[in-house]
């Protein structure tokens, strides 16, 4: 369980983001009262992100500063028609180089310090922002200027965690185009939700004993499901705190453009626990899980790919995550499951009566949870330990059945 112990350390991200909340509230207050000029707003956000990077990552913060510097040079020098291709290749090669270093350290069983892991995780998020802006430039969206761009890339609100905020939304909030109400009540409510989620996760993992996986079919499946759900809850907590940090600074407020009374602070949200976990199919879960990243992958890969867009999107996701063994197995299983899910729904669902559709939905939810258990364990543990856990349990039959079902469906459809 050394891998599990290592993953526990990742909650330092939550602490660093919580420590940034007072600064975010202060920034919102100063902007609301008109005490900051436009230049000072951008400078404060960029300097705050730079300080946060140095404090959390130390010398490894240079990974982010290098990427931001290179991209600003590209924006200044490269033709807009070529900016996306150049920035994409350079950034992904830079990120892959450091992912390879991480794999070498793990291969030789060298300890990986938190600062390096934090820098690598933030570098992945910076890749999202860089490619998002490069696509905006390529598509002739609103012009990009130097100071807002640097502030967007190094913003303290998104440095350690998403959600991915578009450059246009970032600029509109910074320039006061959107004037949101006080986020204090909303942030406190979301922090309370994080406390509840973390309590549930602690209870789940308190009873998990991996040595009991082979003790019985149902008991083994329940233990692995509890472990995987705990991993997913850790993501929900991280996303919720990231959402709080953005809300505290004034980002993520959505108002009905038609003049209605619909208002929400969930404009920047990567996933809600109840909505996402209620998914009754893998395709439905895939659309809801890590929402802003899913939309980014769709824009970056899926809609630009003319052949095998689904498979290409998951292959790129493997690359973006670092191409660890567990990532390759987990994301391949995910891709096969979604494709099989599409085939089954297209053939079976129209023939079911309303009553049987309810049964089908219930069975689909159970099936989705079992598949997610296999995927999450292989992806999170990253090495052979995750595969060994699944090998010891009958739960591994679920992804195997989907792979067989997919090939049978493709043959007869």
UniProtKB/TrEMBL annotation:
GO CC term (a single one): endoplasmic reticulum membrane
MF (Gene Ontology): serine O-acyltransferase activity
Entry's transmembrane regions: 12-30, 42-75, 359-379, 391-410
Bilayer topology term: Multi-pass membrane protein
Locations listed in the record: Endoplasmic reticulum membrane
Taxonomic superkingdom: Eukaryota
Keyword tags: Acyltransferase, Endoplasmic reticulum, Membrane, Transferase, Transmembrane, Transmembrane helix
Main location: endoplasmic reticulum
A biological-process GO annotation: lipid modification
Designated name of the protein: Ghrelin O-acyltransferase-like
The organism's taxonomic lineage, starting at the top: Eukaryota, Metazoa, Chordata, Craniata, Vertebrata
